[in-house]
Every structure is written in structure tokens, then in C-alpha cells.
Write a sequence for this structure.
């Protein structure tokens, strides 16, 4: 039946696809997947934190009690009891979130894709932090926006710049807690000023919060969502507090936007796996996360301390870094003349990996920056890897 | 912390989002979810076919043996052993498919979305059957193509029309086996002519094949993929042969296209759930499907026969319908003056549901058509529902 010598196809990709690239991080991860590499590159949660037995029991229970429902097609907006759980978890302090404001998605990354699909036209102004989360830049760039990189300081975005540059923008994307890639946290006053500036401009404000629960020092700060539930789009995830491999996240927004996102999701993948949603609800409904999350915090806090101590011990004084109060990442600034992309090649030869800073900038990159993750590797390896990196840098001074 | 009286946001949706609509089918499904309704509307597989115990054992085995891998982030292109299994299952008869040609997706619907994202610009010509699968029209329409509805007869697409209308088109989308919505099957000679016409034009040909294994009469026909592996994009799914609620499908295509689709998938949702892919591989690797699929065939063949018999018994001779050799659907053509959309309102009052034919047409709809699914409801209910529909139609003659 096979045709003989058919003319080979010349693939003509869409304009949006022609500019698509594989994420720098995922390319680095391929190189560093060898077990002998000490990887500070990925944001891979430590498998030590995965509640395997809890998940196993939850799969078993759901399949025994409701197998035929769990394995059937389900509603696009998601599993009702889980949406209700999420709405309740975000309500309080005078704020009431209802399940109709919650859309379940196949990981936060899908939330980013759907939001851009629904809010961004070619050339639309999209505001991001300087630097910003690479995966968000990648998701948004498919829809060919004009990125505007909002100036930041050590406390995050500078809201007073928004009145100038935010006019007519379609959205502002921010990560107020333990930001990826910098690890920095936005203080309360800054949050209030940001929410007020966006409300003044009528500018949709995306609050991406995958790390909010991973707080190692001080108290969790109030969410932007609670400050203006009608203007903030909140994104949450089970990847960092339960497990990432199940791909489950959620978007919380005013109902008119949720309805539109639901239509986009229906066209994109019909719905997120019914079974996964039922199992996560089964696993967490009795308060499991309140006992589980502290164990993750303890593990990562120790690894964060180990990395900060090693940086102080082994890095030259001309390098500076952030001191995160939570999350997964530390952000380093090297002397101007050191290009972290070139440094990476040398580091990989020494079996140490990190992510260079440049891909996190929507506009003008700062090539002397880099991101270290402290969650994947245990303390002894952290010390060993940081020492090696320190020597490589010291040799360039 | 809550702002007092912030200005409400005026949501400005993207142009592509403004034209997005919820699928007619899913809206009908909401109405007909009540258990007292006899629904011929959805393509919901019968839960009787779900191998709940097999899936339960597979989840348990994977979580016990490889829990920490299964719950971790995974590669964007998918779980290696499952991609290899799929490549092997499609190889033979002089055709060799390699795992690098396989991309795992979160259900076939995501494959449709990614293909359009990567191949279709605004205004690109996209060729579809008359009528075509509604979910594909919905997925493609997000990228604002110019749909061209290719003429068909009882054997499917008319390939000799392609030389005229196919020039410069970005893709042709076809469902050769037990098509959704018509249930018709493309004979071998027609398949050869179609593949040759597309190869002549250098036109990418999407072969969507979710129902291929559900063959009730005769022998399975050769896949388009095998006729020209360099020009055909094959889409498969575990929804109809295993379970739909896990959302797992795959795209098989030449490597340059798979690499581009992989980049698009990375931006869209990073990857499909690791655990799901490992569990499906665990469930099927020892040949389970070769014993399981015949049980599905038997169940659906009986229900198909029951519906065909009831149509003959209760429907007036001025109504015609297809006699599918597999799949899930029968397509009806009513006398010209009957609008099936209006008929649906009356049918729902009688607690019977179906999908009107109009939404399946990319261009000029034929309002006197409708789709019946025979897989969701057991034979006695099929007879009862068809009798009610027959009376409603007879009353209009």
C-alpha cells in the first residue's frame, strides 16, 4: 500500500511557530540529567517531598469507590468538590471566592497559555517583571505580544512606573512570593501600591503563586487576590506542595474571564483528567497539606541555608546574591565582565549546572546574572557544587 | 487589606477569543446530564468498557515500584517506553515508525490545538470534510483559518476535488475510520487516491483515528499513515479503547514537525502527566488491549445493531441514515423542511437528546441532519429513545 517516492513535504510553519524555541532550561536539563552532575538548574522539586503512599492510597480509594466516574470524560471547568476546596482556601478576611471563579488546568503552564490566548493579540502590550519567569515569557510569546519589562528593585516591581508604561496594556504578570528567578518577595506596602496602580489603569493583574506555601522565614504575606478580587487573576499549583508529575493547577478570576478561559480550554484539551482531580481532592480534603507542607518547608529551608552558607564561604566578594525567604531560587549577579552563558559551559565540564540569567529578561538581558535552585540537591552536594562554581568565578577576576 | 470600590475591569478579549464559543455538544451535554434523559448526544464511551481493576492495579504497581519518578516532572515529548510501544504498533508492512516520530499529548484534542498552532496562520486555508468533527473545527478556528469544506459522498472525501481547492492550503483534516459525525468509512481505493492527491500537492494530511480499533464488521482497513509516512500526520487516542478520563493521546508525524509541536507543547503545558503515561504503559504492555478491545467491540456492535433495527422499525421512510461498520455514530438526514435544532427542543421535552448536524459543517450547514451516538445507552433504552424520536418526526410529515 505504501506510495513509491512521494514528494517530501516542505513544512510551512505558522509565523508564531517560526519564532518558537525550546526553553533554555529544558535544554540544559537534558544535558544535566546524568546523575553525576550536581544540578542547580531545574526547578525540580525534591522527590523526598512526594507523598507517594498518600497518593497511592488516594488512587486506590477513588478507583474502588468511583472508578467509572473517575475514568469518564468530565466537565471543562473541573471537578466540583476540588474547585470548592480551592475557593474556600482562598476565602477569608472579608474576601469570598466562589467555585464558579475557579478553572482547573493541566498545570500552571496551561493557565499561562490560556490567559495569553484569551487576552493577547499580536502586538498587545504585556507587562512583566525584570527579570521574569521564563516559562511565562515562552507561553506569552506564542501570541506575539510587545513585552514591556517593568523596572524592579530588591522588593520587586516599581508600581509608580506603571502609570506611564501600563496604559493600554492587556495584562501585567507578577510573581509576588519568592519570585522565579530572583527569589525575592514583594513587601505588603508594595503589594498594595501595585494592586492600586493596576486598578487605576483597569489593567488585569496576574498573580502567579506556585511557591506561596514554601515560606521559610517570617509570615506569609497577603495575596494580591484578596486586595482586589475583581482585578486580580490568581494562579495556583499542586506541583510544589504535592507533586508536579500529575500536572494540576488552577486559575482564579472574575466569572466573565473564567467563562472565556473555559471555552479556550475546551478547544485546547476538553478538560483536565477527571481521575487526577478526584485523587488530589481525596488526598487533601482532610487537611493533609497542613501537616505535609511543613515537612517540605523544613527540607528546603535547610537546603537554602546550606546554599547561602556555601556562597558566603566560597564566592568572591564581587558577586552578590538574593537571600530568599522561601521558594526554590537564589539569583546571583556576577562582575559585569563575566557572561554566565559561557560560565555554564565550563561549569558543565566540572559537572555542575545552573541556568544563565539572560533568558529571564523579556527585553535587554543582563548577561552577568544566573539562577541557582537549592531544592533538587542535598546539602553536601550543594556545598560541593557551590565550591566548584566559586573557583571558576574566582579564576576570572 | 481589601481595596474599597476599585474600578471594575472592562475585559478586553483577544480577537481570537471573541469568536470562541462553547461547543454545542458540551452545552447539550449539560442539559442532558440528568439520568432520566436518554442521551444519544455525547460521544461518551460506555463506562461498562472501562477496565477499572486493570487501571487500579497499574496505578498501584507504578506507584509502588517507581513512585518518585512517576510523580516528578517528565520530558515534553513523553514517556519513552510508551512512545516506543506506539511506534511499534504502527510499524509493519514495510513501514517503520520510530519513537522520535511520536509526541504524547493530553488527549487528541490537544493534538488538534497544537497542530493548528504550529501550521495555521490567520487566513490560512484549512481543508475539512463535509461534515467534519466539531471538536476539530473548534480547535482550528481559534487560529482563524479560512475553512474549505471538501465535498464528500457516502465513501468520504472526493480526492479529485483537491487539485482545484487544495493549492496553498496548510492542512487537510480527515477521519477515515467510522467518521465523527457520519460514521462512514473510506474504502481502500479512496484512501490511496486521497494520499496521492495530498502528496502531489505537498499538502499535510491529518489522519484522525480515535475509533479505528472499534471495527464491528469486515476487516480494519490500511491506515493513511502507512501509505505515506512522510506526508501523513496520524492521531491516536486511548480514550475509546481504555478510558477517556485520563486524557491521553498521541501524534505521529515526521520528525521536523514533531520537534516543532514539542516546542509548542512545552509552552502550552510543559508535558503530559508522567504518572498517567507510565500507568497506561504498565496496563497495556503485556497485550491487554488485544483481549480487551474485542469486549468493547461486542458491546458496541450490539448497541449499533439495536439502534439500526429501531430506526428501521420506528422512523418514516423519508428519513435516511448511515450504516456504520464501527465507531460510535449514526448520521441521519431528515426531510428538508425539518430543522434538527428545533427538533432537539421537542426531543429534550420528551427526555431524549441528540446533536443537531449544523455545527459539524465548516461552511454551509445542512439543517436537516443530526448525529446519534449508540455507545452511551443500553439497547432497551436505545429502542425507547428512537421510538420517541420517530414519533416526533412522523408528526411533522
Amino acid at each position: 500500500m505504501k506510495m513509491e517516492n512521494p514528494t517530501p513535504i516542505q513544512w510551512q510553519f505558522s509565523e508564531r511557530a517560526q519564532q518558537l524555541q525550546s526553553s533554555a532550561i529544558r535544554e540544559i536539563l537534558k544535558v544535566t540529567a546524568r546523575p553525576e552532575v550536581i544540578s542547580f538548574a531545574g526547578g525540580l522539586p525534591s522527590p523526598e517531598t512526594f507523598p507517594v503512599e498518600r497518593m497511592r492510597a488516594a488512587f486506590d480509594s477513588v478507583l474502588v469507590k468511583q472508578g467509572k466516574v473517575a475514568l469518564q470524560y468530565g466537565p471543562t471547568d473541573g471537578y466540583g468538590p476540588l474547585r470548592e476546596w480551592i475557593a474556600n482556601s482562598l476565602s477569608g478576611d472579608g474576601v469570598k471566592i466562589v467555585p464558579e471563579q475557579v478553572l482547573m488546568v493541566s498545570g500552571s503552564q496551561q493557565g499561562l497559555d490560556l490567559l495569553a490566548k484569551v487576552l493577547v493579540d499580536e502586538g498587545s502590550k504585556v507587562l512583566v517583571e525584570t527579570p521574569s519567569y521564563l516559562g511565562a515569557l515562552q507561553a506569552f510569546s506564542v501570541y506575539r505580544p510587545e513585552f514591556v519589562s517593568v523596572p524592579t528593585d530588591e522588593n520587586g516591581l516599581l508600581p509608580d512606573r506603571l502609570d506611564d508604561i501600563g496604559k493600554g496594556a492587556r495584562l501585567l504578570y507578577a510573581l509576588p512570593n519568592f519570585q522565579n528567578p530572583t527569589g525575592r518577595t514583594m513587601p505588603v506596602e508594595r503589594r498594595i501600591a501595585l494592586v492600586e496602580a493596576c486598578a487605576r489603569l483597569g489593567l488585569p493583574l496576574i498573580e502567579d503563586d506556585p511557591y506561596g506555601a514554601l515560606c521559610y522565614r517570617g509570615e506569609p504575606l497577603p495575596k494580591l487576590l484578596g486586595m482586589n478580587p475583581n482585578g486580580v487573576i490568581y494562579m495556583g499549583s499542586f506541583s510544589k506542595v504535592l507533586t508536579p508529575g500529575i500536572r494540576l493547577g488552577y486559575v482564579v478570576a472574575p466569572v466573565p474571564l473564567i467563562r472565556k478561559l473555559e471555552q479556550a480550554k475546551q478547544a485546547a484539551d476538553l478538560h483536565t483528567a477527571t481521575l487526577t482531580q478526584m485523587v488530589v481532592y481525596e488526598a487533601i480534603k482532610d487537611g493533609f497539606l497542613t501537616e505535609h507542607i511543613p515537612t517540605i518547608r523544613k527540607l528546603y529551608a535547610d537546603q537554602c541555608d546550606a546554599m547561602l552558607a556555601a556562597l558566603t564561604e566560597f564566592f568572591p566578594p564581587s558577586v552578590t546574591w538574593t537571600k530568599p525567604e522561601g521558594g526554590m531560587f537564589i539569583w546571583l549577579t556576577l562582575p559585569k565582565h563575566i557572561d554566565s552563558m559561557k560560565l555554564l559551559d565550563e561549569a558543565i565540564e566540572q559537572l555542575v549546572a545552573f541556568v544563565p540569567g539572560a533568558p529571564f529578561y523579556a527585553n535587554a538581558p543582563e548577561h552577568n546574572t544566573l539562577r541557582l535552585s537549592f531544592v533538587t540537591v542535598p546539602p553536601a552536594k550543594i556545598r560541593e557544587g557551590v565550591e566548584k562554581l566559586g573557583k571558576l568565578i574566582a579564576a576570572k577576576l
Remarks:
- Chain B has a mean pLDDT of 95.
- The radius of gyration of chain B is 22 Å.
- The first helix of chain B runs from residue 15 to 18.
- Chain B touches chain A through 102 residues (CB under 8 Å).
